[in-house]
Design goal:
Helix content is 2%, strand content 48%. The protein is built from 3 helices and 52 strands. A hairpin with a 3-residue loop joins β48 and β49. Strands 3, 5, 6, 8, 13, 16, 17 and 19 form an 8-stranded antiparallel beta sheet that branches. Strands 42-43-44-45-52-49-48-47 form an 8-stranded antiparallel beta sheet, with no helix packed on it. It is mainly beta and 632 residues long.
Length: 632
Amino acid sequence: MIVNKYHLIILCLGCLLMYACQPQDEQAPVATEAENISSLPFDELTLDNTDAFQTPGGNWQIAGGVLSDYQTENSMDIQNGTGTLVNLPTENERKNLFTTLEHGDIELKVEFLVPKGSNSGIYFQGRYEAQILDSWGVEEPQFLDVGGIYQRWDESRPDREKGFEGHAPSINTAKAPGLWQEYHILFRAPRFDDNGNKISNAKFEWIDLNGMRVQENVEVTGPTRAAAYEDEVASAPLMLQGDHGPVAFRNFRYKSFSLTDSLKLGEMEYTVYEHGGNRTPDFDTLDVVKKGVTDLFDPSELSPKDEHYAIWYSAEIEVPTAGDYLFQTQMSNGGELYVDGERIIPNTGEVDYQALGKIIHLSEGTHQLDLSFFQVRWGTNISLWYEGPGIEKRALGVEATETEERERPSPITVEPEAVPEIIGGFVNYGNEKRTHTLSVGHPEKVHYNYDLKRASVLNYWKGPFADATQMWRGRGESQLLVPMNAATEGSAGIPIVRLGSENAFDNHAMTDALTGLNYIINENGRPVFNFNYDGIAIQDEIYPSESGGNLLRNLRYEADETQSNIASRIAQGESIELLSKGLYRVNGQYYIQINDTNGQDVVIHDEGGVSALLVPILNNETRSEVQYQVIW
């Protein structure tokens, strides 16, 4: 369902209370201390040198980083150091690059940077290409755009049919050239019988680009165009295309998966008990209601009672390979996971339906698994997942959602038309839920989230505006608004700093001096934010650029008397790099183009591992204004 309005939408949301040893094989399971782990660590390709690759050509080199001006064709300046793989093809040197790693099924994460107008690709098994291209601003992406699965090619077909089976990304999530982007891909290798005959095609299970799903369940019947090989095999190296244009890669992380290994769950017994409703039931004192055998983690199917009950599940699991295993539970109400009598995941219910996980070391062979569950009110859901050596994350046992086809209701989406749309709610920023936020969508299709407690911009995105489904469905408990395209995180800092003060660059500490935050709606239907910081009045206005492709921000500062050592904080992060006059790259993720500083010099301030982009203000004046553009 799409919600379109010609007037301002402000959703007033009520408050929501949220809750929110040695690993030798002969030892008992050993667990990590963290309780919110969702994945086993990835393996990495080391980029200290080129040892992870086969005979690299002269166009490939290791660098400390790269700089690229988004306005300049094929711009690529190399920085000294290690950690970045760079391709700079020439007429004589333009070889493709192959990993020493050979893979079948693989989950791959890798960051890449493509300059303006450049082109490359990642070929799984050297045969099936996930495209890399400067596709910034493309309105209707094709298979040849970044996020696309490139087409196959057959010279024997008629002229207009030689290219076939290309798959365009579902949405364009491309960043501006010269910024770091990320692929996260799950690839399935083709399958073969004992005689070497192919019995199933290669498949891209999914492709995420910059955090958005752009491909899902796409089979590839054979090698795509410009593949290194025309045959198909069960295992082969990755290939990075080097014969087209400049490109850089960093942070290669991967998991290789076996086709056969998995944990085997034996016969699972269960016992249903009477339960009075406390958070930590003592099962030894509870009365038994029912016993039986099941393979289904669905309490509502097992219990004859609708509420106030507890269940204890017990089974043996067969571990095929010794190593580290992740177990993760997600339950409404609460319950705990035990392996070989050791409590691995405690959950007294205060976290509600939050996923909790731990990594333990298991020896090969048989182990005892026990799972408790107690029902206090409302939901009765249990999910149990695991991941292990060569075993991708999957459910253990049968989940209730797997037993029947359930129709997904259409999402509730919001799109601005004639005037901006403004929604108050919760949004995610990094690993944190921000609860006092305003989401602002523009008809020009550039949008942002604003933190009303910190007077800061959380993130920016383009294209479709907002998915408000979680604000309304299932009681709307999460109240989360989700951007409908890849969101680039800003520095989320208050746009002012008093230099030399304690914790000057600690965003959380600085909120104590922030008061009176409010906003008005101007004649264009856009919010203008007003607040005070330590005696300084600040007005913050954010709106689309004239071209419509980026956002402009005007910051106006006013004080009763002149202030010293005050600066406008434009951005803050791990790295800020000057590319050209007035143009800066922040964390490699977005650009800042400073348009007006009232004649003040811009400063990159480094302190305690934090870089901040600053403009001095209110020097011998009572008013200052700073304007800049955010480009991503």
